[in-house]
Amino acid sequence: MEDDVVKSRLFHSLAISAVGASKHLSASPSFQRYAITSWTREHLHKRECCLFEKDVREDVCRCGYLKTDHVDEAIKPEDFTGESWDKHKHVREVPTDAFGDISFSDLGQKTGKYARVSTDTSPEILYELLTKQWKLSPPNLLISVTGGAKNFFLKARLKNMFHRGLIKVAQTTGAWILTGGTHTGVMKHVGQAVRDHALSNSMQGQIVAIGVATWGIIHNRDTLVHSEGCFPAHYEMDIKGQGRLSCLDNNHTHFLLVDDGTQGHYGVEIELRSCLEKCISGKRLGNKENGVTIPVVCVVLDGGPGTLNTIYNAMLNGTPCVILEGSGRIADVIAQVAELPLARVTIALIHQLMKKFFGKEYENFPHRKIIEWTKKIQDIIRMSHWLTIFRISEDDRRDVDVAILQALLKASRTSETLGIESWKRQLELAIAWNRVDIAETEIFTEESQWKSSDLHWAMFSALVGNKPQFVSLLLENGVSLRDFLQDEETLCELYKQLPGGIFLRKLAKRVHSSCRRRRKVFRIRSRAHSGQGEMISMTHVSDEVRHLLGSFTHALYPPSNHFDVSTEVTSVSLSKSPTGSQSLLREDNADAQRDPGRDLFLWAVVQNNKELAEIAWELCRDCMSAALAASKILKTMAEEGSDADEAEAMRELANHYEKHAIGVFSECHNNDEERARKLLVRVSPFWGRTTCLRLALEADDKSFVAQSGVQALLTQIWCGELSVDNPVWRVLICMVFFPLIYTGFLVFRRDEVLHREAEKKEEIKTVEKVTGSTIRTNSRSFGVKRLKPLSSWYRLVHLYSSPQVKFYWNIVSYFAFLFLFAVVLMIDFQATPSAGELLLYIWLLTLVCEEVRQLFYDPDGFGFHKKARMYINELWNILDVLSIFLFIIGLAFRLTTELFYAGKILLCIDFVVFCLRFMAIFTISRTLGPKIIIVRRMMTDMFFFMFLLSIWVLAYGVAKQGILIHNDNRLDWIVRGAVYEPYLIIFGNFPTNIDYAAFDLDSCSMNGTDPLKPKCPVLNENQTPAFPEWLTIILLCVYLLFANILLLNLLIAIFNFTFQTVQDNTDRIWMFQRYELIKEYHSRPTAPPPFIIFSHFHLFIRNMVLCRPPVMSKEFKRELPQMEEEELLSWEALMKDRYLLSTQQEQSQSMERRILDTSQKVTTITDQLEREEETGSAAMVQRLARLEEQVVQSAKALQWIMDSLKCRGFASKEVQPTLTTTDESPDSLINTSEKEDEFHVNARQLHYPNSKLTRFPVPEEKVPWEVSFSSYMPVYYASEDSGDHVDGSESEAVDNYRNPEGRTGIRGRGALSCLGPNRNADLVLTRMRDSERSVLEYLVVWDERHGTLALPGGPLQSADHLPVTLKKTMGKTLYEKINAIVSEGTKVFEGYVDDCRNTDNAWVEITVLNIHLDRTSQLMVDINSAVASSRGALQWREVSGKTRLSSNQRDSLRQVAELHNRKF
């Protein structure tokens, strides 16, 4: 049981993609269809009529279907006298019979999914159908497109912008598009947009367009019906024959066909579609447990009165709407008045606009409907935060997609969600949509103040969601990577969220294997941790990265604090030696340094994510080591991976980062050569305490190693302390006549440094003489350690310890060895070994000792296995081993009498191998070194060529031997005739036994008895050859033609191709391999063989007997002091920035970029010209109309002035004509806005609260009682649950009370308790939070019924007493104490309240009382006790604009803040 828990926790986050893939593979199409069919028939239903009752036509039921479409039991006899047909009673639900795949063409290319569902289907079931059965990914946005259902005309520019914007927003955000699904109106335009995207972007993801249509109005729906589903159903679009019905749009991807059991009735799907939208909007974005919900936006084109109702209801439900101006009808009506003051949106204006945009349809609109639409349009304009108008003239620089997303963000900035939470919601939406442009322009503005900690969740989401542009944006706007990755758990969680790939699979195997090891450890240790499951830890990541980098590196991350397998196993296995092992572990932990840029870069590299890795690389402190480490990691993963495409992508990324390393190092080397060399050999604490040079060698980055700066470092190491400018002949002379080094004949590096410093001092003295200042001398002398010239002894030591000198002495030694070897083999090879031969054996023993030393010498910490593998992979080492092995065997044979000569033969062959090994001396030569590489490649080509040549040799040789010689049983002569002689023919040694003229009987043996002569060919009676001469000559000619001409020239061509191919890379390969030779001689003892035996003896005594640690060289690996390390890394970062800047400049100046910029400019100019053509004439007409209107109004004003002057006495009684110009002055606008504020708004809401009543629509202009409103006919309503009311008949007393603020659209007392004013009181108890009096707080009550906060209050019975309802809220005792000090309070407000319950005859009036309490008073103590014991029912809250109160109570609280001089 315990193991099962461990395994389940292990693979829960690791193998989800693999499991999904296996399920997909295991489930066959037939099995999937069976599963979908079973689920559909169980959960989805259709509606059918169960009682046929004839309508106007005899064969048609009242449900709209034909009599033949009904089941038998629905058809009753003629004399049936039951109840009449009722839609709610005689329509029943049965399992659906129309579902599956739908194909719109004979080829089956456009295939979607469909299902016939009942109107009563739960929206949760539909959401499950979409996401689980149809495998749609949950949306990040739901776009509900509504508008004209009839065909309407869209201007070309608006049509293109709508298509482009809709598809862009759907594609970038992962949105679902919801429409009516038919091939008409706006649905048709959506389908065309989807089609255009599918044609132009066949490789990208599919756009999800869901059509929710009425089943009863679908033309040719019979083809969709099948009891077991259709896979697919072939649907034919018959536009001409559809009549009053509609065809499905062939460009939608999914269809929900809503069935209510009737036929021919449009709009059946509206209610279910609205419920589905509401259900989807309640789902969490990204299937998270918390966070924002899936946003919904309504896009409107064209449309009639029904569309207006849709917009109105959507905005009441909190759905933002985007209306496209220019699309026609109601969309244009709303767009025309959207920016006008409400006072100017009059009934007359709406009449005028309706007539303009609806044309002949306007004649059928009743005046009452115009009034209702006016009221709804005014309410829509008032909810401006939910409304966005897309205008082509103003929004020419943005597309529809930007308008849609900006509308959603604008809607989220409501007054109730001010502050960081609002910005957080907007940012979460932008990240989910992957729209960095929206985030940059709408979210990260001067208004939003972000802290780094506030954006950590966004950073994590952007990283896991692979959104590199957002990562860059977040870093630019204040995210501190160090703070973000400060907690190791964050980094560990990032690795748990890695996408499926080779690293995740390898990590899973490592965790699984460590889990098995842990079970073995449990048998040794106690079971204290047996309840914990094994999950990914940073130790597992560190172990895997170390495996990819190489065992020579140290762990990048210290062992985790929690129970970890590797630390457990280490502690168990090393418990016997705690001093050494534990100290080593502590050292590793201390050395492991954290760099957040390195951590993020490594996380991106192991998943082969180039974009994120590029961002993180720019943040790395040790950028060159990071690039080389990435190259090594990627190449290792490419070798170990099984996916060829993935491996190729990794190799490309590895080469990319090798180029980065080359670019940075080149910049460094050009700036300061000395610092650049330090960068190569410095120990990097961030990358396993290795060096850049070692990483480049391990990653096989030949181009990096071949750089002039790296080669200059190798040359410097090669020369040791000698100057690199010394000619070779001087070095050779000084090797023999070493006293010359004291004469300056040979220059040392120390001498060059001293010479440069002397020159600088002379320059400074010259400057000081000119300027008269000594500041430079003092500044240079401070803190500078002066170098001293080398002593005589050290000059001698540095001469002979130079790798260059060691190499030359070894060449001399090797020459002497070969000379001695040759002398022994040719002159002095006696039965008893001579002195020279014994010296040869001793000499070889020293060579063996040196090879053993090279094998075990491991300064880089590779380990024996890797060191042995590296040793064997080197060709020269193989020759060394082969030569020593042959010498030992030959020596063993030579010391025995029987095999004495065989031993000499082996030693002679061994001499050849030693001579071949001597070619290694040329590898150091820049001229001959690359040629040796070419020779090695040609030897490989020739090896494979020999297989091809052997076919011709054997073919001709066997044929020739069979024709000439009859039954020769001597194997040596058979091989000689069939193989050896044909092979010699290639080189011009032509045979004489194939021609009669050259035949000599004495040169052969008749019966083959002479072992020194070949067997004679078959002879005739006259002793002449019997073989056909013409045939043997033809065979020879053909053989020579193919072997000598064709194959040899082919070999030459192969060699030429190899030479041309390798020639360009030989220098690079030679420079790469040169490192190993330099390192070998750098670590080699000074004395050459055979004197090297003394050095070996010294090393043996030092390391084995005295157990002293080996002396580590600083030439290849150098530990820098902390200050110097920081300075060097800062300089490297500066060089990296220069490199990136130069790279960007090169890209911007490239030909491809220039062509792209030019094409964009041409496109911009073209769009501007098109826009000017479309809008120029319209703008001119509009300006002329406005000018004409102003002239008319000016004439009226002048006439009024003239009339007033003529009749002075009556001038004041006349009314000045109202100017209705479109351009109003600021003062008039202010007055208009003030007038708007006087009208109540909540009291005119169309839907009366807690009832099914609808108010009579009252537009703004008809609110005052003074304004005539003849059409005003409000309904009467008095709630039975509202309590007491006035005495007598209420209906008679109604006319005695009139709402002081104007009409409300409903008569009676409504939900209020009485006619007339209903007085209430709100109590605002305030206090100072602390003695510093910095924060003002108020007491608030939690309303459990509505789930909101409210000020304590209630109905007011007396002006001198608090509401009685406060007794229940605060308790009787506390109520009485507060009631006693009511007179001390301050009246903040008293008067009418715009309440949604108000009617024409009953309204709410409120008194707001503020009582400020002293912190030290007894009443304050009692209130705090009541708050503590209320369990959240009473709370103290800060007085601020972020408070969550109703609008009226927020206004009251604002006045209280002003009273106490506090900012609200």
Description:
The protein has 1464 residues and is of the alpha/beta class. A ten-stranded mixed β-sheet has the order 8-3-4-9-7-6-5-10-11-12, with helices on both faces. Helix 1 (2-12) packs antiparallel against helix 19, helix 26 (644-671) runs antiparallel to helix 27 and helix 30 (708-719) packs across helix 42 (1029-1083). The radius of gyration is 48 Å and the shape is elongated. The chain starts with a helix and ends in a 5-residue tail after the last helix.
Task: Write a brief caption for the model.
With 1464 residues, this protein is an alpha/beta fold. The chain is 52% helix and 9% strand.
Set out the fold topology:
Elements: H1 2-12, H2 16-26, H3 29-43, E1 45-49, E2 91-95, E3 99-103, E4 111-118, H4 123-133, E5 141-147, H5 156-173, E6 175-179, H6 185-200, E7 208-214, E8 230-234, E9 254-259, H7 270-281, E10 296-301, H8 305-316, E11 321-324, H9 329-337, H10 347-358, H11 367-382, E12 387-390, H12 400-412, H13 420-433, H14 436-443, H15 456-464, H16 468-476, H17 481-484, H18 488-496, H19 502-522, H20 538-549, H21 565-573, H22 578-591, H23 596-606, H24 610-619, H25 623-640, H26 644-671, H27 673-681, H28 692-698, H29 702-705, H30 708-719, H31 728-736, H32 749-771, H33 775-781, H34 792-800, H35 803-826, H36 835-856, H37 864-873, H38 875-894, H39 900-917, H40 928-964, H41 971-986, H42 1029-1083, H43 1092-1105, H44 1122-1148, H45 1151-1206, H46 1226-1238, E13 1275-1278, H47 1290-1293, E14 1306-1310, E15 1316-1328, E16 1336-1343, E17 1348-1350, E18 1353-1355, H48 1366-1370, H49 1372-1380, E19 1386-1393, E20 1402-1412, H50 1418-1429, E21 1434-1438, H51 1447-1459
Parallel strand pairs: 3-8, 4-9, 5-6, 5-10, 6-7, 7-9, 10-11, 11-12, 13-14, 15-20
Antiparallel strand pairs: 1-2, 3-4, 15-16, 15-18, 16-17, 16-21, 19-20
